[in-house]
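User: Hi! I'm working on a homework problem where we have to compare a predicted structure to a textbook description. Could you give me the structure for the chain below?
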Amino acid sequence: MSAHLTKGSETSAFILNIPVTNTGRRDGSETLQLYIRDLSDKEGPLKSLRAFERVSVKAGQTVTATLRLTPKSFEFWDPQTNTMRTKSGQYEILYGTSSQDKDLKRLTVTL
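Assistant: Happy to help. Predicted structure tokens:
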């Protein structure tokens, strides 16, 4: 499961297109989860769920799930200002079908 990440517009910071393949013989569905981690924040959360999408996939078929990240998706708590805000820097985008680290693919973006 490799994704295609594109820079979005002012309303969509990034768009992530993820192909999902059903290798089985029966129709099914899968829920994709997308987490963000602020790489400069050593005391903050290891990852925060920012988007998810459930897709239906017919047996033997591939569909593309599209997850959109808005600028707000990159907001984290700033204890100095007591507000949620987006800081410039590097962020890790983690995506997959589970929250377990072993199941997540990783991309790094710079804001």
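For your comparison, note the following. The mean pLDDT is 90. The two ends are 25 Å apart (CA to CA). Good luck with the assignment!
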